[in-house]
Amino acid sequence: MSAHNELGKWGEEVARDYLLTRGYAIDGVNQRIGRVEIDFIARKDNRICFVEVKTRSTDIVDPVEAIDKTKRQRMVSAADMYMRGVDIALEPQFDLIFIIGGPDGYELEHIEDAFYPTL
To answer: 3-state SS of the chain: helix, strand, coil percent to 5?
Structure first.
């Protein structure tokens, strides 16, 4: 496995532990819906959360830039398909988790309700 794939896998493990310690229940990991992969599908309170994780070794490139309009639209479409398929009556929420660093030290930022689906 290449170094950036290993870093991404590590970042998803960190994000999973983070979500669990904050009371989220994980329903799906790397869930493929159509052509889109959602890193985590989780529940907390009356919400179903679709979570995208971006891990970078340095802050030279802002991970926020990787979540462009097209990525957001694909996440919304996948979430809609998922919710229709399993008939969930929870409020959807789109979260982003950014991790910068590595196993020797990192910073994690969790943006809840990072964006809203457009009509």
So the answer is: 35, 45, 25
